[in-house]
Amino acid sequence: MKGNEALAEAAVIAGCRYFFGYPITPQNEVPAYFAMRLPQVGGTFIQAESEIAAINMVFGAAAAGARVMTSSSSPGISLKQEGISYMAGAELPAVVVNMMRGGPGLGNIAGSQADYFQATKGGGHGDYRLIVLAPNSVQELADLTVLAFDLADRYRMICMILGDGFLGQMSEPLVLPEPTGLKFDKSEWILDGAKGRKPHIVRSLRLRPEDALEKLNLKLQEKYREIMQHETRSEEYNTADAEYLLVGFGISSRLLKSAVQALKSQGVKAGLFRPITLWPFPSRELAACAQGKKKVLVVEMNAGQMVEDVRLAVNGSVPVDFLGRMGGMTPEIESITERIKSYAA
Amino acid sequence: MQLDTKEKLREKTVFSPTPSLNRRPHHYCAGCGHGIVHRLLAELIDELGIPQKTVLIAPVGCGVLAFFYINVDGCEAAHGRVPAVATGLKRVNPENIVIAYQGDGDLLAIGTAETIHTANRGENITVVFINNALYGMTGGQMAPTSLVGQKTKTSPYGRSAAEAGYPIRACELIDTLEAPVFIERTSVHSVKHIIRTKKALKKGLKNQMENRGYSFIEVLSMCPTGWGMKPVSATEWIEKQMVPYYPLGNFRDR
Protein backbone atom coordinates (compact mmCIF):
# COMPACT_ATOMS: atom_id res chain seq x y z
CA MET A 1 0.00 0.00 0.00
CA LYS A 2 1.14 3.54 -0.67
CA GLY A 3 2.34 5.40 2.44
CA ASN A 4 -0.19 8.21 2.23
CA GLU A 5 -3.09 5.76 1.83
CA ALA A 6 -1.84 3.51 4.62
CA LEU A 7 -1.75 6.56 6.88
CA ALA A 8 -5.34 7.50 6.00
CA GLU A 9 -6.70 3.98 6.45
CA ALA A 10 -4.88 3.65 9.78
CA ALA A 11 -6.56 6.87 10.91
CA VAL A 12 -9.96 5.43 10.04
CA ILE A 13 -9.05 2.27 11.99
CA ALA A 14 -8.14 4.51 14.95
CA GLY A 15 -11.64 6.02 14.86
CA CYS A 16 -10.92 9.23 12.98
CA ARG A 17 -14.15 10.32 11.30
CA TYR A 18 -13.30 13.92 10.41
CA PHE A 19 -10.67 15.16 8.02
CA PHE A 20 -10.16 18.75 6.87
CA GLY A 21 -7.41 19.54 4.40
CA TYR A 22 -6.19 21.48 1.42
CA PRO A 23 -4.39 20.11 -1.64
CA ILE A 24 -0.60 20.17 -1.63
CA THR A 25 1.96 17.81 -3.12
CA PRO A 26 3.34 15.33 -2.00
CA GLN A 27 0.44 14.35 0.29
CA ASN A 28 -2.54 14.60 -2.07
CA GLU A 29 -3.38 10.89 -1.69
CA VAL A 30 -4.30 11.55 1.96
CA PRO A 31 -7.29 13.87 1.39
CA ALA A 32 -8.29 11.88 -1.70
CA TYR A 33 -8.42 8.69 0.38
CA PHE A 34 -10.46 10.35 3.12
CA ALA A 35 -12.84 11.86 0.55
CA MET A 36 -13.49 8.32 -0.72
CA ARG A 37 -13.40 6.51 2.64
CA LEU A 38 -15.08 8.77 5.23
CA PRO A 39 -18.58 8.78 3.67
CA GLN A 40 -18.45 4.94 3.84
CA VAL A 41 -18.01 5.04 7.62
CA GLY A 42 -20.37 7.93 8.43
CA GLY A 43 -17.59 10.51 8.64
CA THR A 44 -17.07 13.94 7.14
CA PHE A 45 -14.43 15.15 4.70
CA ILE A 46 -14.20 18.83 3.79
CA GLN A 47 -11.77 20.29 1.30
CA ALA A 48 -11.18 23.57 3.10
CA GLU A 49 -10.67 26.93 1.40
CA SER A 50 -7.18 27.17 2.90
CA GLU A 51 -4.72 25.43 5.22
CA ILE A 52 -5.71 28.01 7.82
CA ALA A 53 -9.40 27.16 7.55
CA ALA A 54 -8.55 23.45 7.66
CA ILE A 55 -6.67 23.63 10.97
CA ASN A 56 -9.46 25.77 12.45
CA MET A 57 -12.07 23.23 11.37
CA VAL A 58 -9.86 20.72 13.20
CA PHE A 59 -10.01 23.06 16.22
CA GLY A 60 -13.81 23.05 16.12
CA ALA A 61 -14.15 19.29 15.62
CA ALA A 62 -11.65 18.60 18.43
CA ALA A 63 -13.57 20.97 20.72
CA ALA A 64 -16.70 18.99 19.88
CA GLY A 65 -14.94 15.83 21.08
CA ALA A 66 -14.20 14.08 17.78
CA ARG A 67 -11.09 12.26 16.59
CA VAL A 68 -9.91 14.52 13.79
CA MET A 69 -6.94 14.83 11.45
CA THR A 70 -5.44 17.21 8.97
CA SER A 71 -2.45 16.62 6.75
CA SER A 72 -0.27 18.82 4.62
CA SER A 73 3.27 19.38 3.46
CA SER A 74 5.83 21.95 4.56
CA PRO A 75 4.45 25.28 3.21
CA GLY A 76 0.95 24.26 4.27
CA ILE A 77 2.15 23.33 7.76
CA SER A 78 3.68 26.80 8.06
CA LEU A 79 0.22 28.25 7.42
CA LYS A 80 -1.29 26.06 10.11
CA GLN A 81 1.05 27.20 12.87
CA GLU A 82 -1.30 29.81 14.33
CA GLY A 83 -4.06 27.26 14.73
CA ILE A 84 -1.61 24.72 16.18
CA SER A 85 -0.57 27.24 18.83
CA TYR A 86 -4.24 28.00 19.67
CA MET A 87 -4.94 24.29 20.01
CA ALA A 88 -1.94 23.89 22.32
CA GLY A 89 -3.30 26.74 24.47
CA ALA A 90 -6.82 25.33 24.50
CA GLU A 91 -5.46 21.78 25.06
CA LEU A 92 -7.28 20.25 22.12
CA PRO A 93 -6.27 16.82 20.78
CA ALA A 94 -5.77 16.12 17.07
CA VAL A 95 -3.35 14.46 14.68
CA VAL A 96 -1.49 16.67 12.20
CA VAL A 97 0.58 15.11 9.42
CA ASN A 98 3.51 16.80 7.69
CA MET A 99 4.82 14.98 4.63
CA MET A 100 7.85 17.22 4.35
CA ARG A 101 9.08 18.62 1.06
CA GLY A 102 12.11 20.70 0.13
CA GLY A 103 12.27 24.31 1.32
CA PRO A 104 12.52 27.13 2.17
CA GLY A 105 9.68 28.88 0.39
CA LEU A 106 7.87 27.01 -2.34
CA GLY A 107 11.01 24.88 -2.65
CA ASN A 108 10.26 21.63 -4.46
CA ILE A 109 8.13 18.54 -4.03
CA ALA A 110 10.88 16.03 -3.24
CA GLY A 111 11.10 14.46 0.21
CA SER A 112 13.01 16.46 2.80
CA GLN A 113 13.58 16.62 6.56
CA ALA A 114 14.00 20.37 6.87
CA ASP A 115 11.00 20.95 9.18
CA TYR A 116 12.54 19.22 12.21
CA PHE A 117 13.03 22.52 14.03
CA GLN A 118 9.50 23.66 13.20
CA ALA A 119 7.99 20.41 14.44
CA THR A 120 10.02 19.90 17.60
CA LYS A 121 10.83 23.41 18.79
CA GLY A 122 7.37 24.97 18.27
CA GLY A 123 6.62 26.50 14.87
CA GLY A 124 3.96 28.82 16.24
CA HIS A 125 3.99 31.38 19.04
CA GLY A 126 4.20 30.72 22.77
CA ASP A 127 5.69 28.00 24.96
CA TYR A 128 4.24 24.78 23.67
CA ARG A 129 5.20 21.36 22.35
CA LEU A 130 3.84 18.76 19.99
CA ILE A 131 4.44 15.05 20.31
CA VAL A 132 6.34 14.29 17.08
CA LEU A 133 6.51 10.77 15.62
CA ALA A 134 8.92 9.95 12.79
CA PRO A 135 8.10 6.66 11.02
CA ASN A 136 10.57 5.15 8.54
CA SER A 137 8.38 2.60 6.72
CA VAL A 138 4.82 2.32 5.43
CA GLN A 139 4.09 -0.26 8.16
CA GLU A 140 5.39 2.02 10.89
CA LEU A 141 3.56 4.99 9.39
CA ALA A 142 0.29 3.10 9.80
CA ASP A 143 1.16 1.79 13.28
CA LEU A 144 2.25 5.19 14.57
CA THR A 145 -0.89 6.83 13.19
CA VAL A 146 -3.01 4.62 15.45
CA LEU A 147 -0.72 5.44 18.36
CA ALA A 148 -0.86 9.17 17.52
CA PHE A 149 -4.62 9.37 18.18
CA ASP A 150 -4.22 7.71 21.58
CA LEU A 151 -1.34 10.00 22.54
CA ALA A 152 -3.28 13.08 21.39
CA ASP A 153 -6.33 12.11 23.43
CA ARG A 154 -4.33 10.97 26.48
CA TYR A 155 -2.45 14.26 26.76
CA ARG A 156 -5.02 16.58 25.14
CA MET A 157 -2.56 17.94 22.58
CA ILE A 158 -1.54 17.70 18.96
CA CYS A 159 0.45 14.67 17.93
CA MET A 160 2.32 15.24 14.67
CA ILE A 161 3.35 12.55 12.21
CA LEU A 162 6.53 13.88 10.62
CA GLY A 163 7.04 11.98 7.39
CA ASP A 164 8.41 13.10 4.08
CA GLY A 165 7.54 13.02 0.42
CA PHE A 166 9.33 9.71 -0.16
CA LEU A 167 7.59 7.90 2.69
CA GLY A 168 4.18 9.17 1.57
CA GLN A 169 4.75 8.15 -2.04
CA MET A 170 6.39 4.74 -1.68
CA SER A 171 4.51 1.44 -1.68
CA GLU A 172 5.40 -1.38 0.72
CA PRO A 173 3.69 -4.49 2.04
CA LEU A 174 1.46 -3.66 4.97
CA VAL A 175 -0.41 -5.47 7.71
CA LEU A 176 -3.18 -3.09 8.71
CA PRO A 177 -2.99 -2.21 12.40
CA GLU A 178 -5.73 -3.17 14.88
CA PRO A 179 -7.64 -0.52 16.80
CA THR A 180 -6.26 -0.23 20.35
CA GLY A 181 -9.72 0.05 21.85
CA LEU A 182 -8.53 2.63 24.39
CA LYS A 183 -11.27 5.07 25.46
CA PHE A 184 -10.63 8.56 26.71
CA ASP A 185 -13.27 10.42 28.71
CA LYS A 186 -13.76 13.88 27.21
CA SER A 187 -17.05 14.67 28.95
CA GLU A 188 -15.40 17.14 31.35
CA TRP A 189 -14.45 19.66 28.68
CA ILE A 190 -16.05 19.13 25.26
CA LEU A 191 -18.63 21.45 23.71
CA ASP A 192 -21.83 19.60 22.90
CA GLY A 193 -24.46 21.76 24.59
CA ALA A 194 -24.62 22.29 28.35
CA LYS A 195 -27.22 19.62 28.97
CA GLY A 196 -27.49 18.77 32.67
CA ARG A 197 -24.17 20.45 33.41
CA LYS A 198 -22.56 23.87 33.64
CA PRO A 199 -21.39 25.40 30.35
CA HIS A 200 -17.88 24.51 29.19
CA ILE A 201 -15.60 27.09 27.64
CA VAL A 202 -12.76 26.08 25.31
CA ARG A 203 -10.16 28.85 25.19
CA SER A 204 -6.51 29.76 25.38
CA LEU A 205 -7.34 33.36 26.35
CA ARG A 206 -6.11 34.12 29.86
CA LEU A 207 -6.10 37.87 30.37
CA ARG A 208 -4.36 38.09 33.73
CA PRO A 209 -0.72 37.22 33.07
CA GLU A 210 0.28 37.19 36.77
CA ASP A 211 -1.89 34.21 37.64
CA ALA A 212 -4.13 32.76 34.96
CA LEU A 213 -1.81 32.66 31.95
CA GLU A 214 1.23 31.53 33.91
CA LYS A 215 -0.90 28.88 35.59
CA LEU A 216 -1.92 27.52 32.18
CA ASN A 217 1.73 27.49 31.13
CA LEU A 218 2.81 25.71 34.32
CA LYS A 219 0.13 23.09 33.70
CA LEU A 220 1.33 22.60 30.12
CA GLN A 221 4.96 22.31 31.20
CA GLU A 222 4.05 19.72 33.83
CA LYS A 223 2.27 17.73 31.12
CA TYR A 224 5.29 18.01 28.83
CA ARG A 225 7.60 16.76 31.61
CA GLU A 226 5.35 13.75 32.11
CA ILE A 227 5.52 13.01 28.37
CA MET A 228 9.32 13.31 28.41
CA GLN A 229 9.34 10.74 31.24
CA HIS A 230 7.05 8.19 29.62
CA GLU A 231 6.79 8.57 25.87
CA THR A 232 10.26 8.50 24.33
CA ARG A 233 10.65 5.87 21.66
CA SER A 234 13.74 4.80 19.74
CA GLU A 235 15.31 1.86 17.98
CA GLU A 236 18.87 0.54 17.87
CA TYR A 237 20.54 -1.62 15.22
CA ASN A 238 23.94 -3.31 15.62
CA THR A 239 24.98 -0.91 18.39
CA ALA A 240 26.31 -3.34 21.01
CA ASP A 241 29.88 -3.73 19.76
CA ALA A 242 29.91 -0.75 17.37
CA GLU A 243 32.82 1.69 17.39
CA TYR A 244 30.92 4.32 15.44
CA LEU A 245 27.32 5.34 15.87
CA LEU A 246 25.11 6.63 13.06
CA VAL A 247 22.05 8.62 14.07
CA GLY A 248 19.15 9.41 11.76
CA PHE A 249 15.35 9.65 11.80
CA GLY A 250 12.62 8.80 9.34
CA ILE A 251 13.52 7.96 5.78
CA SER A 252 17.25 8.70 6.16
CA SER A 253 17.54 5.98 8.83
CA ARG A 254 16.84 3.48 6.03
CA LEU A 255 19.99 4.68 4.26
CA LEU A 256 21.92 4.44 7.51
CA LYS A 257 20.88 0.82 8.00
CA SER A 258 22.25 0.02 4.54
CA ALA A 259 25.41 1.96 5.42
CA VAL A 260 25.85 -0.09 8.62
CA GLN A 261 25.56 -3.30 6.58
CA ALA A 262 28.00 -2.06 3.94
CA LEU A 263 30.50 -1.04 6.62
CA LYS A 264 30.17 -4.44 8.29
CA SER A 265 31.12 -6.19 5.06
CA GLN A 266 34.18 -3.92 4.93
CA GLY A 267 35.15 -4.82 8.50
CA VAL A 268 34.07 -1.52 10.12
CA LYS A 269 31.93 -1.79 13.25
CA ALA A 270 29.14 0.76 13.04
CA GLY A 271 25.65 0.84 14.58
CA LEU A 272 22.48 2.84 14.14
CA PHE A 273 20.42 4.77 16.66
CA ARG A 274 17.03 5.92 15.38
CA PRO A 275 14.80 8.29 17.37
CA ILE A 276 11.15 7.43 16.71
CA THR A 277 9.82 10.24 18.88
CA LEU A 278 11.54 13.48 17.87
CA TRP A 279 9.79 15.24 20.72
CA PRO A 280 10.19 14.01 23.35
CA PHE A 281 13.72 13.35 22.09
CA PRO A 282 15.15 10.04 23.41
CA SER A 283 18.15 11.76 25.01
CA ARG A 284 18.76 9.28 27.82
CA GLU A 285 18.60 6.31 25.46
CA LEU A 286 20.95 8.00 23.01
CA ALA A 287 23.41 9.06 25.71
CA ALA A 288 23.56 5.47 26.95
CA CYS A 289 23.93 4.09 23.45
CA ALA A 290 26.68 6.56 22.50
CA GLN A 291 28.74 5.75 25.60
CA GLY A 292 32.21 4.52 24.65
CA LYS A 293 31.75 5.06 20.91
CA LYS A 294 34.60 6.72 19.04
CA LYS A 295 32.37 9.04 17.09
CA VAL A 296 28.74 9.83 16.36
CA LEU A 297 27.68 10.75 12.82
CA VAL A 298 24.26 12.37 12.38
CA VAL A 299 22.80 12.13 8.88
CA GLU A 300 19.78 14.23 7.91
CA MET A 301 18.12 15.55 4.78
CA ASN A 302 18.58 19.12 5.98
CA ALA A 303 21.36 21.52 6.97
CA GLY A 304 21.74 19.99 10.44
CA GLN A 305 18.75 20.24 12.75
CA MET A 306 18.38 17.10 14.88
CA VAL A 307 22.17 17.14 15.29
CA GLU A 308 21.67 19.91 17.87
CA ASP A 309 19.55 17.58 20.04
CA VAL A 310 22.11 14.80 19.56
CA ARG A 311 24.90 17.11 20.81
CA LEU A 312 22.79 18.09 23.83
CA ALA A 313 22.09 14.42 24.55
CA VAL A 314 25.70 13.22 24.46
CA ASN A 315 26.82 16.45 26.12
CA GLY A 316 30.40 16.35 24.89
CA SER A 317 31.08 12.75 25.91
CA VAL A 318 31.55 11.68 22.27
CA PRO A 319 32.52 13.84 19.27
CA VAL A 320 29.54 14.46 16.97
CA ASP A 321 29.85 14.96 13.21
CA PHE A 322 27.16 15.82 10.67
CA LEU A 323 26.42 14.90 7.08
CA GLY A 324 23.41 16.29 5.25
CA ARG A 325 21.86 17.06 1.89
CA MET A 326 19.35 19.83 1.36
CA GLY A 327 16.62 20.94 -1.01
CA GLY A 328 15.07 17.51 -1.47
CA MET A 329 18.38 15.71 -2.11
CA THR A 330 19.21 12.34 -0.55
CA PRO A 331 22.61 11.45 0.97
CA GLU A 332 24.38 8.63 -0.88
CA ILE A 333 25.24 5.52 1.10
CA GLU A 334 28.81 5.67 -0.16
CA SER A 335 29.29 9.20 1.17
CA ILE A 336 28.18 7.94 4.58
CA THR A 337 30.48 4.91 4.61
CA GLU A 338 33.41 7.00 3.33
CA ARG A 339 32.87 9.55 6.11
CA ILE A 340 32.91 6.81 8.75
CA LYS A 341 36.02 5.21 7.27
CA SER A 342 37.77 8.60 7.26
CA TYR A 343 37.56 8.64 11.08
CA ALA A 344 39.69 5.50 11.29
CA ALA A 345 42.27 6.71 8.80
CA MET B 1 -62.21 45.01 45.21
CA GLN B 2 -60.42 47.72 43.31
CA LEU B 3 -57.64 47.72 45.89
CA ASP B 4 -57.13 43.97 45.47
CA THR B 5 -56.64 44.28 41.74
CA LYS B 6 -54.09 47.04 42.23
CA GLU B 7 -52.13 44.94 44.68
CA LYS B 8 -52.21 41.97 42.36
CA LEU B 9 -50.88 44.12 39.58
CA ARG B 10 -48.08 45.32 41.80
CA GLU B 11 -47.09 41.75 42.58
CA LYS B 12 -47.17 40.52 39.03
CA THR B 13 -43.73 40.04 37.49
CA VAL B 14 -43.70 42.07 34.32
CA PHE B 15 -39.98 41.83 33.65
CA SER B 16 -37.09 39.67 34.78
CA PRO B 17 -33.58 39.09 33.48
CA THR B 18 -33.39 36.26 31.01
CA PRO B 19 -31.59 33.25 32.58
CA SER B 20 -29.10 32.74 29.74
CA LEU B 21 -27.62 36.20 30.28
CA ASN B 22 -25.03 35.96 33.04
CA ARG B 23 -25.57 38.59 35.69
CA ARG B 24 -22.03 39.88 35.81
CA PRO B 25 -20.69 43.33 34.93
CA HIS B 26 -19.49 43.37 31.34
CA HIS B 27 -16.45 45.09 29.91
CA TYR B 28 -18.19 47.02 27.14
CA CYS B 29 -18.05 50.81 27.04
CA ALA B 30 -21.09 52.98 27.74
CA GLY B 31 -23.35 53.12 24.69
CA CYS B 32 -21.77 50.08 22.98
CA GLY B 33 -24.09 47.89 20.92
CA HIS B 34 -22.55 44.53 21.91
CA GLY B 35 -24.44 44.40 25.19
CA ILE B 36 -27.76 44.87 23.39
CA VAL B 37 -27.05 42.07 20.92
CA HIS B 38 -25.82 39.80 23.73
CA ARG B 39 -29.10 40.33 25.57
CA LEU B 40 -31.19 39.72 22.45
CA LEU B 41 -29.31 36.46 21.81
CA ALA B 42 -29.70 35.35 25.44
CA GLU B 43 -33.42 36.13 25.36
CA LEU B 44 -33.85 34.19 22.13
CA ILE B 45 -31.85 31.22 23.42
CA ASP B 46 -34.29 31.07 26.34
CA GLU B 47 -37.42 31.76 24.28
CA LEU B 48 -36.49 29.06 21.77
CA GLY B 49 -35.58 26.64 24.57
CA ILE B 50 -32.03 25.98 23.32
CA PRO B 51 -29.69 26.93 26.21
CA GLN B 52 -28.65 23.27 26.49
CA LYS B 53 -27.98 22.98 22.79
CA THR B 54 -26.23 26.21 21.91
CA VAL B 55 -22.49 26.64 21.30
CA LEU B 56 -21.36 30.25 20.99
CA ILE B 57 -18.08 31.05 19.26
CA ALA B 58 -16.51 34.33 20.26
CA PRO B 59 -14.22 36.24 17.87
CA VAL B 60 -11.00 38.13 18.46
CA GLY B 61 -12.14 41.70 19.02
CA CYS B 62 -14.44 43.39 21.53
CA GLY B 63 -16.69 40.31 21.53
CA VAL B 64 -13.80 38.09 22.66
CA LEU B 65 -15.39 37.48 26.07
CA ALA B 66 -18.94 36.92 24.77
CA PHE B 67 -18.94 33.40 26.27
CA PHE B 68 -18.60 34.91 29.75
CA TYR B 69 -21.86 36.80 29.37
CA ILE B 70 -24.08 34.28 27.60
CA ASN B 71 -24.56 31.19 29.71
CA VAL B 72 -24.04 28.45 27.11
CA ASP B 73 -21.10 26.32 25.90
CA GLY B 74 -18.50 28.74 24.57
CA CYS B 75 -15.55 28.51 22.25
CA GLU B 76 -12.65 30.69 21.25
CA ALA B 77 -11.45 31.14 17.68
CA ALA B 78 -8.34 32.72 16.23
CA HIS B 79 -8.86 36.09 14.52
CA GLY B 80 -11.14 35.61 11.51
CA ARG B 81 -11.51 31.85 11.99
CA VAL B 82 -14.90 31.76 13.72
CA PRO B 83 -16.70 30.26 10.67
CA ALA B 84 -14.08 27.49 10.31
CA VAL B 85 -14.30 26.59 13.99
CA ALA B 86 -18.11 26.73 13.68
CA THR B 87 -17.91 24.35 10.72
CA GLY B 88 -15.90 21.82 12.72
CA LEU B 89 -18.22 22.01 15.72
CA LYS B 90 -21.41 21.80 13.69
CA ARG B 91 -20.26 18.90 11.50
CA VAL B 92 -19.42 16.82 14.57
CA ASN B 93 -22.56 17.69 16.56
CA PRO B 94 -25.27 18.71 14.06
CA GLU B 95 -27.87 18.78 16.86
CA ASN B 96 -26.08 21.75 18.47
CA ILE B 97 -27.11 25.31 17.60
CA VAL B 98 -23.88 27.03 16.61
CA ILE B 99 -23.69 30.82 16.74
CA ALA B 100 -20.72 32.48 15.02
CA TYR B 101 -20.34 35.94 16.60
CA GLN B 102 -17.99 38.24 14.69
CA GLY B 103 -16.87 41.83 14.25
CA ASP B 104 -16.00 43.67 11.06
CA GLY B 105 -12.22 43.18 11.11
CA ASP B 106 -12.71 39.52 11.95
CA LEU B 107 -15.39 38.81 9.36
CA LEU B 108 -14.42 41.06 6.46
CA ALA B 109 -10.64 41.54 6.69
CA ILE B 110 -8.55 38.75 8.21
CA GLY B 111 -11.38 36.21 7.89
CA THR B 112 -12.84 37.09 4.49
CA ALA B 113 -12.01 33.71 2.99
CA GLU B 114 -13.65 31.79 5.85
CA THR B 115 -16.70 34.06 5.67
CA ILE B 116 -17.24 33.57 1.95
CA HIS B 117 -16.55 29.84 1.85
CA THR B 118 -18.57 28.95 4.93
CA ALA B 119 -21.53 30.84 3.45
CA ASN B 120 -20.90 29.20 0.09
CA ARG B 121 -20.92 25.72 1.63
CA GLY B 122 -24.23 26.64 3.21
CA GLU B 123 -23.10 25.46 6.64
CA ASN B 124 -26.12 25.16 8.90
CA ILE B 125 -25.01 27.88 11.33
CA THR B 126 -26.11 31.38 12.35
CA VAL B 127 -23.61 34.19 11.79
CA VAL B 128 -24.07 37.38 13.81
CA PHE B 129 -21.98 40.17 12.36
CA ILE B 130 -21.46 43.29 14.48
CA ASN B 131 -20.57 46.16 12.15
CA ASN B 132 -19.31 49.17 14.10
CA ALA B 133 -17.13 50.58 11.30
CA LEU B 134 -13.80 50.19 13.10
CA TYR B 135 -11.56 47.94 15.20
CA GLY B 136 -12.76 48.62 18.75
CA MET B 137 -10.61 46.32 20.87
CA THR B 138 -7.27 47.49 19.50
CA GLY B 139 -8.14 51.15 19.93
CA GLY B 140 -10.11 52.32 16.92
CA GLN B 141 -8.27 51.48 13.71
CA MET B 142 -9.81 51.62 10.22
CA ALA B 143 -11.91 48.56 9.37
CA PRO B 144 -13.08 47.25 5.99
CA THR B 145 -16.43 48.83 6.93
CA SER B 146 -15.11 52.28 7.94
CA LEU B 147 -16.90 54.92 5.87
CA VAL B 148 -15.12 57.06 3.29
CA GLY B 149 -13.88 60.12 5.14
CA GLN B 150 -14.17 58.43 8.54
CA LYS B 151 -11.33 59.37 10.86
CA THR B 152 -9.78 56.49 12.77
CA LYS B 153 -6.39 55.82 14.38
CA THR B 154 -5.07 54.50 11.08
CA SER B 155 -6.95 56.92 8.83
CA PRO B 156 -6.23 60.14 10.74
CA TYR B 157 -7.13 62.30 7.71
CA GLY B 158 -10.27 60.35 7.00
CA ARG B 159 -10.59 57.11 4.99
CA SER B 160 -9.45 57.79 1.45
CA ALA B 161 -11.18 55.71 -1.20
CA ALA B 162 -8.15 56.17 -3.46
CA GLU B 163 -5.80 54.73 -0.82
CA ALA B 164 -7.97 52.26 1.09
CA GLY B 165 -10.84 51.52 -1.26
CA TYR B 166 -14.50 51.67 -0.35
CA PRO B 167 -16.21 50.09 2.64
CA ILE B 168 -17.38 46.53 1.97
CA ARG B 169 -21.07 45.69 2.19
CA ALA B 170 -21.16 42.20 3.69
CA CYS B 171 -24.84 41.37 3.08
CA GLU B 172 -24.63 42.35 -0.57
CA LEU B 173 -21.43 40.30 -0.99
CA ILE B 174 -22.96 37.20 0.56
CA ASP B 175 -26.14 37.76 -1.44
CA THR B 176 -24.17 36.84 -4.58
CA LEU B 177 -23.81 33.25 -3.31
CA GLU B 178 -26.35 30.50 -3.95
CA ALA B 179 -26.34 28.61 -0.65
CA PRO B 180 -27.34 31.07 2.11
CA VAL B 181 -31.02 30.95 3.11
CA PHE B 182 -31.31 34.13 5.14
CA ILE B 183 -29.47 37.47 4.86
CA GLU B 184 -30.56 40.60 6.68
CA ARG B 185 -29.06 43.89 7.84
CA THR B 186 -30.45 45.51 10.97
CA SER B 187 -29.31 48.03 13.55
CA VAL B 188 -29.48 48.59 17.30
CA HIS B 189 -29.49 52.40 17.32
CA SER B 190 -33.15 52.73 18.31
CA VAL B 191 -35.82 50.67 20.05
CA LYS B 192 -37.63 50.09 16.78
CA HIS B 193 -34.48 48.71 15.19
CA ILE B 194 -33.59 46.64 18.25
CA ILE B 195 -36.98 44.91 17.94
CA ARG B 196 -36.31 44.27 14.24
CA THR B 197 -32.85 42.94 15.09
CA LYS B 198 -34.36 40.49 17.54
CA LYS B 199 -36.78 39.31 14.89
CA ALA B 200 -33.98 38.74 12.39
CA LEU B 201 -31.83 36.91 14.93
CA LYS B 202 -34.81 34.72 15.82
CA LYS B 203 -35.28 33.83 12.17
CA GLY B 204 -31.59 33.01 11.86
CA LEU B 205 -31.70 30.68 14.87
CA LYS B 206 -34.97 29.04 13.81
CA ASN B 207 -33.55 28.36 10.37
CA GLN B 208 -30.70 26.47 12.01
CA MET B 209 -33.06 24.56 14.33
CA GLU B 210 -35.04 23.51 11.26
CA ASN B 211 -31.84 22.49 9.40
CA ARG B 212 -32.52 25.03 6.68
CA GLY B 213 -28.92 26.23 6.31
CA TYR B 214 -26.76 29.30 6.55
CA SER B 215 -28.17 32.52 8.04
CA PHE B 216 -26.33 35.83 8.13
CA ILE B 217 -27.45 38.80 10.22
CA GLU B 218 -25.45 42.02 10.05
CA VAL B 219 -26.09 44.45 12.91
CA LEU B 220 -25.01 48.09 12.68
CA SER B 221 -23.75 48.82 16.15
CA MET B 222 -22.57 51.88 18.08
CA CYS B 223 -18.97 52.38 19.17
CA PRO B 224 -19.05 55.77 20.94
CA THR B 225 -15.54 55.31 22.37
CA GLY B 226 -14.01 54.42 19.01
CA TRP B 227 -15.94 57.10 17.18
CA GLY B 228 -15.10 59.77 19.83
CA MET B 229 -18.77 60.55 20.46
CA LYS B 230 -21.28 60.55 23.25
CA PRO B 231 -23.65 57.55 23.16
CA VAL B 232 -26.63 59.55 21.88
CA SER B 233 -24.56 61.13 19.09
CA ALA B 234 -23.39 57.64 18.15
CA THR B 235 -26.97 56.48 17.57
CA GLU B 236 -27.49 59.55 15.37
CA TRP B 237 -24.28 58.78 13.46
CA ILE B 238 -25.65 55.34 12.57
CA GLU B 239 -28.92 56.88 11.35
CA LYS B 240 -27.30 59.68 9.34
CA GLN B 241 -23.97 58.19 8.18
CA MET B 242 -24.09 54.41 8.27
CA VAL B 243 -27.67 53.60 7.21
CA PRO B 244 -27.44 55.55 3.91
CA TYR B 245 -24.37 53.46 2.93
CA TYR B 246 -25.53 50.22 4.56
CA PRO B 247 -29.24 49.98 3.72
CA LEU B 248 -31.28 48.12 6.33
CA GLY B 249 -33.59 45.32 5.40
CA ASN B 250 -33.86 41.74 4.28
CA PHE B 251 -31.81 40.55 1.33
CA ARG B 252 -32.93 36.94 1.29
CA ASP B 253 -35.43 34.79 3.14
CA ARG B 254 -35.90 31.36 1.60
Notes on the protein architecture:
The complex is a heterodimer of chains A (345) and B (254). Chain A starts with a helix and ends with a helix. Chain A has a 7-stranded mixed sheet with strand order 2-1-3-4-6-5-11, with helices on both faces. Chain A is an alpha/beta fold and 345 residues long. In chain A, helix 9 links the parallel strand 9 (244-247) and strand 10 (270-275). In chain A, helix 1 (3-13) packs parallel to helix 2, helix 1 (3-13) runs parallel beside helix 6 and helix 9 crosses helix 12 (333-344). Chain A is built from 12 helices and 13 strands. Chain A folds into 2 domains: 3-190 and 219-230, Rossmann fold, CATH 3.40.50; 234-344, Rossmann fold. Chain B is α/β, with parallel strands linked by helices and 254 residues long. Chain B has one domain: Thiamin diphosphate (ThDP)-binding fold, Pyr/PP domains (Rossmann fold), CATH 3.40.50.970. Helices cover 41% and strands 17% of the residues of chain B. Chain B has 11 helices and 9 strands. In chain B, the strands form 2 sheets. In chain B, strands 2-1-3-4-8-7-9 form a 7-stranded mixed sheet, with helices on both faces. Chain B has a two-stranded antiparallel ribbon with strand order 5-6. In chain B, a hairpin with a 5-residue loop joins strand 5 and strand 6. In chain B, helix 2 packs across helix 9 (191-209) and helix 5 (104-110) crosses helix 6 (112-121). The radius of gyration of chain B is 19 Å and the shape is globular. The N and C termini of chain B lie far apart (53 Å). Chain A binds chain B through residues 18, 20, 44, 46, 48-50, 52-54, 56-66, 68, 82-83, 86, 90, 191-196, 199-205, and chain B through 51-55, 57, 64-65, 67-68, 71-78, 81, 84-93, 95-97, 113-114, 116-117, 121. Strand 7 (201-202) of chain A pairs parallel with strand 2 of chain B, so a sheet runs across the interface.
